Amino acid sequence: MQLTQPTFLKKELSAILFITIPIAFAQLCQMAMGVTDTILLGQVDKETLAIGGFTTQLFFTICIVLQSSLSSAAILIAEYIGSKRISQISKIYWTTYIFGLILCIPCFFLLKSTNLILIWTGESQNIIVKSSHFMKILLWGMPPVLVGTGLIRVVLPAFNASKILLQITPLTTIINALLNAAFIYGLWGAPKMGLYGSAIGTTITLWISTILFIGVMHCKKDLKQYLYPFKIDLSLLWPLMRLGLPICISSAAEMLLFLATSFRAGLFGTEALAAHQIANSFATFTFMIPLAISQAANVRVSYWIGAQKPIFAKKTGFLSIGLGSILMGLIGIIIFIFPQTIVSLFIDIHSSNNQSTIEIAIILLKIVALFQVVDGMQGVAMGALRGLKDTSIPMIFALISYWGIGYTLSGWLAFQLDYKASGLWAGMAIGLAVIAVLATTRFYYMTYHPSRIMQRALH
C-alpha cells in the first residue's frame, strides 16, 4: 500500500521518537552519574574534587570520542534490516566486538598519556601522581566502555530495541552512586578509599552495566535473529573502519574545541572560567536532544536506504533535521528569557561574591540561546549524512568549521577585540552555524536525485 505524505510523516515521526526518547533519557542518566560523582567527591575536599572530576572527565571524553567509531555498526545493521538480509546481521554484530577491541589499543595509550596535560598546565607533582593513579584504576573500565556498553548502546537503536536503555540505565546510575559512596566513605563494610574509591566504584559500575546490557539483550527472543549464529567476518572490519573513523575524527574535532575553549576561558580569570563552566554544562545538557535525534536519523535513513526507498530516506532526514531545529529553537527561547534562573541552578545568585560570574554567565547563556537552532541542525544533519554512509566529507566540514573558523574566530574576538569569554563563545557559535549550513546543504545535495542516493549509499 502506497503511503500518503502526511501518513508517512506521522508514522516516521513516531519511529524517530521511539528511538530518540530512550537514548536521550539514557544520556541524561549518564550525565547524572557524573554529577553524583562530583557531589560525593566534593564532600571530601576541594583537591579530591578537582583531581577526581578532571581525570574522570578526561577518561570519558577520550572513550566517547573513540566509541563514536562504533556508530558504523548501526549504519550497516539498519541497512541490512531494511533490505531484509537478517541472516547476515549477526556477523556485523560480532565483528564489531573485534573493532571495539582494536579501538582499545589507541585508547589505552591516550589515557596513559593524560598526565602530560597536567604537566603542561603546570600542576604540582602531588596532583599529577594522584591523577595518574586514579587513571590507572579507571583503565580497567575502558574495555566495558568500548567493547561493552558503547557497542550495545549503538546497536540497540538499529535493532529498534532502544527501550532496553530505559530498563538498564537508571539502575546502573543508582549502582554507581551506591558504589562510589561505599568506597569513598567506607560505607556498608567497604574500605574507605577517598579519591581512589570513586575510580573503583565507577570501574565496577561499568562492568556491571556491560553484563546487564549484554545479558538482557541476549535474553530477548525477538533479538536473537540478529545476534545468532555466532560468526565473525574480518572482511567487515574495513567497511566498519571506513565509516567509523571519520565519525570519530568529527566527534574529536567538536569535543576538543570545547575543551580548548575551557583552557582559554581560564586565561580571563576565575569568574570567567566559572561562567564558562555554567554555560558549557547547560549547553551540553541541551545537546542531548539533537544527539539522540541524530542517532535516530542515522538508523532510519540507513533503514530506508537498505529498503531501496531513497525518497523515504530523504524525507526522514529532513523530518529529523526539522524536528531537531524546532525543539532546540524552543529551548533557545527559554534560555534567552530565563538566563538568571539557569545560573541560579549552579551558584548562589544572591551572594555578592558571585556577581561578576553571574553577569558573565548571563551573557554566555544568551549566546548559547542564539545558537541552539544551528546546534540542533548540525547535530542531526551529521547523523542523517551518516545514514547515507557519507562520513568523509562531513569530517572535513567539521575540521574546517570547528577549528578553521570556530577556534580562529574565538581567539580573534576574545583576544584581539577584547570580548574575552563572550568572544570565545561567539566564535564557537559562528563555527556551529557554518557546519549547520554545510551539513544540511550536503544532505540536500546528496538526496536531490534518488539515483545519487542509492549510488553513494550502496557503494
Overall description:
- It is a single chain.
- By secondary structure, this protein is an all-alpha fold.
- The protein has two domains: 21-232, no CATH class; 243-459, no CATH class.
- The protein has helices spanning 5-42, 46-67, 71-82, 89-112, 115-120, 125-138, 142-158, 163-185, 195-219, 224-227, 237-265, 270-306, 310-337, 339-344, 355-370, 372-387, 392-416, 420-446, 450-457.
- The longest helix has 38 residues, at 5-42.
> How many strand segments?
0
Query: Which segments are poorly predicted (pLDDT under 50) over 5 or more consecutive residues?
Result: none
Cα end-to-end separation:
29 Å
What value does the Rg take, in angstroms?
22 Å
- The percentage helix is over 70%
The number of domains: 2
Structural class: mainly alpha
Q: How confident overall, as mean pLDDT?
A: 87
Sheet with the most strands, sense and barrel status: none
Using the alpha-carbon principal axes, give the shape.
globular
Number of helical regions: 19
The SSE string, one letter per element, is: HHHHHHHHHHHHHHHHHHH
Oligomer: single chain
Beta-strand residue fraction: under 5%
